[in-house]
């Protein structure tokens, strides 16, 4: 039960949000949009995994290097997101696989 | 050179492995190295996604170290599996580039 | 509510109760969207509900985040809730949706960053 653990105000999540808030506006905007996208796509290891805090780590380094957010992500932020989750299955993948499994059983 | 993104796909991971093999280093420095090399289109984010993948595939050892100018940085070093992967990459690269050179020399007959 | 009847098994209904409690805490508009999502996802295939839980969990999480950010449901789900649900479950047309989300992401980023600059 990952996501709700995160959402329901666990300490880590609050600390995470606070870090996001502390980012410069351009980084914050891109982070929020990325997170929305990732929630929709739903990679399985999103909830408790290191992905979201990792993005903030990465962004903080960009800030420290004095770079603008699109300089570090590239203009195609969606492609950056897809690269991040390239090899992690999504909930939809698992769901589809479970349907295929059921069909397989029936046809036998 | 610009517009290499498509062509670099699949080889960039090997390049990153090679850079890490030289010395333990971190993402932004790796990007800088690739930019200096002439891959000017490569941004930090591209390297970050590659490092994430290398970490998931357990090809690198990651150590967090404090930095003078900002938050702690993740430093990457190759482990045995990573060195093996890098050797495989160079073997494959040598093969592909020799075949392509041959094709260029002999033409499409 | 219909979906209560569809779900059997006590551990599943416990999860449902947890969902319901979370949905209660949402603003009206978001709670209504949750109801819509549930009713569109449930008939989505031949399943026990078990494999759908993570997807619903994700959708609810998205609504919670949206509400917490003070954003409207429309901004996140768009006009086509059934289509959105299909995409969540990875069914037919999911790829199209993923592409649309992708475009939406880049468009939002461009729009909000330019507002920042100007």
UniProtKB/TrEMBL annotation, chain A:
What is the protein name given in its UniProt record?
A: DUF1048 domain-containing protein
A Pfam family matched by this chain, by name?
Answer: DUF1048
TrEMBL record, chain B:
InterPro entries named among the record's database cross-references: Metal_resp_DNA-bind_regulator, Tscrpt_reg_PadR_N, WH-like_DNA-bd_sf, WH_DNA-bd_sf
Give a single Pfam family match: PadR
Q: Boundaries of each Transcription regulator PadR N-terminal domain copy?
A: 16-87
| This protein's name | PadR family transcriptional regulator
From which source organism is this entry?
Answer: Streptomyces finlayi
Automatic annotation (TrEMBL), chain C:
* Species of provenance: Streptomyces finlayi
The record ties this protein, via Pfam families, to: DUF1048
Supply the name of the protein.
DUF1048 domain-containing protein
Task: Tell me the SUPFAM superfamilies matching this sequence.
Answer: BH3980-like (SSF158560)
Gene3D superfamilies reported for this sequence: c-terminal domain of poly(a) binding protein (1.10.1900.10)
Taxonomic placement? Bacteria, Bacillati, Actinomycetota, Actinomycetes, Kitasatosporales
Domain of life assignment:
Bacteria
């Amino acid at each position: 039960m990952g996501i709700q653990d995160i959402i329901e105000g666990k300490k880590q999540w609050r600390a995470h949000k606070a870090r996001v808030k502390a980012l410069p506006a351009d980084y914050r905007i891109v982070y929020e949009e990325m997170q929305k996208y990732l929630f929709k796509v739903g990679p399985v290891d999103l909830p408790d995994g290191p992905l979201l805090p990792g993005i903030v780590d990465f962004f903080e380094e960009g800030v420290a290097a004095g770079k603008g957010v699109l300089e570090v992500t590239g203009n195609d932020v969606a492609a950056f997101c897809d690269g991040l989750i390239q090899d992690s299955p999504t909930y939809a993948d698992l769901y589809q696989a479970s349907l295929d499994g059921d069909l397989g059983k029936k046809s036998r | 050179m610009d517009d290499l993104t498509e062509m670099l796909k699949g080889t960039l991971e090997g390049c990153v492995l090679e850079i890490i093999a030289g010395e333990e280093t971190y993402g932004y420095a790796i990007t800088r190295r690739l930019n200096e090399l002439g891959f000017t289109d490569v941004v930090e984010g591209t390297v970050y996604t590659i490092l994430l993948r290398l970490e998931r595939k357990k090809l690198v050892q990651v150590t967090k170290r404090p930095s003078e100018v900002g938050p702690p940085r993740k430093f990457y070093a190759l482990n045995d599996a990573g060195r093996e992967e890098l050797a495989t990459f160079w073997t494959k690269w040598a093969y592909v580039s020799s075949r392509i050179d041959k094709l260029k020399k002999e033409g499409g007959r | 509510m219909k979906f209560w009847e569809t779900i059997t098994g006590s551990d599943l209904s416990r999860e449902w109760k947890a969902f319901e409690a979370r949905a209660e805490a949402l603003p009206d508009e978001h709670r209504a969207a949750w109801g819509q999502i549930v009713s569109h996802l449930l008939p989505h295939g031949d399943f026990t509900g078990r494999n759908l839980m993570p997807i619903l969990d994700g959708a609810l999480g998205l609504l919670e985040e949206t509400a917490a950010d003070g954003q409207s449901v429309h901004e996140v789900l768009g006009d086509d809730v059934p289509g959105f649900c299909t995409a969540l479950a990875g069914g037919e047309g999911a790829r199209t949706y993923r592409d649309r989300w992708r475009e939406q992401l880049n468009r939002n980023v461009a729009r909000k960053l330019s507002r920042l600059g100007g």
